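hey so i finally got around to running both of the ones u sent me last week. sorry it took forever, my laptop kept dying halfway thru and i had to restart like 3 times lol. anyway pasting them below in the order u listed, first the sequence line then the structure token line for each. didnt double check formatting much so if smth looks off just lmk and ill redo it

first one:
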Amino acid sequence: MLLLLVRGTNQRTAHNLDLETEAAADDDFFGVASERGVVAVPGSESFTRDRLEKFEHLARSRDARVSDVKVIDAGFGTIRYDSDNQPSLQEFTKRDRSEKIVTERPGNGSRAGSFAPKHLEGADDGKPPDSEEQQTAYDYLRRESPPSSVKLDSKGFRILKSEIRPDLSRLLHTEAVDLLRKLVLYNDNDILVLNKPYGMLCHGPAPGVSDACVLTKLLPDLSSALYPRQDAKLYTVHRLDRDVTGVLLLARTQRMADMLNSLFQKHQVSKTYLAITAGVPDHLEGVIDMPLAEGEVEGAKRMVLNPKLDPEFQRLVPKFRKSFAAVTTYRVLASCGRAGYLELRPTTGVKHQLRAHLGLGLRCPILGDHKYSHLRRLAPQKLPGDMLDRLGIRQSKVRDAPLHLHARAVVVPEILDGRNLTVAAEVPYHFAKNLRRLKLNRN
């Protein structure tokens, strides 16, 4: 008995992604990433959507009040905004991490090429592939896994897991630390924000998992690398599942860690996720209000739905020691055939909440989620035929499909002298690739 509050119509239409949040005040600013670039805009209703869509229409304004706490990951580095609304690319050298600002406007080429520093433009610059001047995360990932390295099985079908970049299992401890340095989205005011890569555990250790795949094992060396002259320590304040990518917050001091932990426990931190789903909800948007409990399926622990029923029916439902209130707001951004592209905003923070609500509640499991694709058994996900065709895979190899769940943005309210901190990260390579294949990126 799924409690679903519907807001909208049954018509399946695509929506443009925005980062608006109720937690933001009228004078807060946020960043929006689009195919034409990355822009920062105020939350005022007087600004039209047309000004969001074209970077070049965002002119200098004398009364612009863009703060320095709006950060967007553009796939090739991070974009912050100066006081006159002009974007700038930040780079850090490996030796002293000193900051250099590039203020050139993007041209008409690709986003990566237009924003990249001049020494990254063009392939014939005479520098070796491991040159120290290649400072961006985009360049590092491109060098580690060339775009042409698409693996096929013996029958000519794609192997989707081969497109995960980078492959953490191939990295040494020092290489993993260096990778995290390149994936820093924000580093100021005792807060460090990372763009967590696929396959990295937030806590460990775990059997058969190397230290290069466990964040807590890397934090001491990461702290030494980022703050060489300080006796700093990094604290985890929340976590993402191993195969979930995106925005992850850390604290540099115990005081800041306590503040962030308190905000997370009170559900005051606004989180936005993106997911590709096998199936499209019947309603365009809604709120899933369904308690969860830790159950068991085929001898393995898994979160299960624990609906509130009338007393005469409650005896038919298994009893659990503890039930957790779980609320998720969803919105369909795009759909094509049986594939969906959803924006998710969890109000609560229950373990595997989004995966359970989509897979067991809406019956639209996340692509690559083999744990929550079946109600009463654990088995590889079964995809609709149109998704198999567009992805170029066969059903027997769907078990190798990676999870397509990404932490898109986090808004921490009034954490910096009454101002909100908003940080966003672009989807990883394999996620973006499959968005295009499934024709979900047209808007």
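and the second one:
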Amino acid sequence: MVYQGVIELGKQGDKLWIIWLVAAMFGSALTLASFMKLIHAVFLGSPADSDRSKTKEVSAWMWLPMLVLAAFCVVFGIFAYAFPLKKLILPAVPGVSFVGFWSPGLATILLIVGVVIGVVIYLVGNIKGEREDISFVGGEVIQPEMRVSGVDFYRTVEDFRCFKTFYRGAERKLFDIYDLSRAILLHRSQEKSSESKRSLGARNKR
């Protein structure tokens, strides 16, 4: 949708559309890097040495918001025209014209078929039971000095000259709204406290 919107801007004669296209491509690259970090940290690395005996499943207050968001994704995807487009989008932009079409029924069937195939593969793979082994890459056991954490996997982005200043400022919490607002409120409270002390001292002198 982002790329389609940017290309449509270019067709309409927008002179800055190439800048938005480059920004969208850069955002996609960073998104890919974040998923590479996640996949590497979860599936491609050796387990951490920390004690995992106290690890437990989160409470319902943690997974309930994710369940609600997932339900919205399903409803907005399957019933896209019945509810979000018809009730929210089309009334706001009555002159819109569709450049394509969406078939939620076919997509839902394909998703269900994919889930069923995945469950069958999982069950067939577990017929002989599970086997636990140490992590290895290319047949070689990963040594501790060869272990790369998920954080360091794409840390080179921080070394880019155009982003280094922003990352250093973020490390000092210069962009943290909580810390900034707390500092402002603390400064204001200190000023009011000083003013009240000065006024109280002036009254005592009188």
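quick thing i noticed on the 2nd:
The two ends are 72 Å apart (CA to CA).
anyway thats it, ttyl
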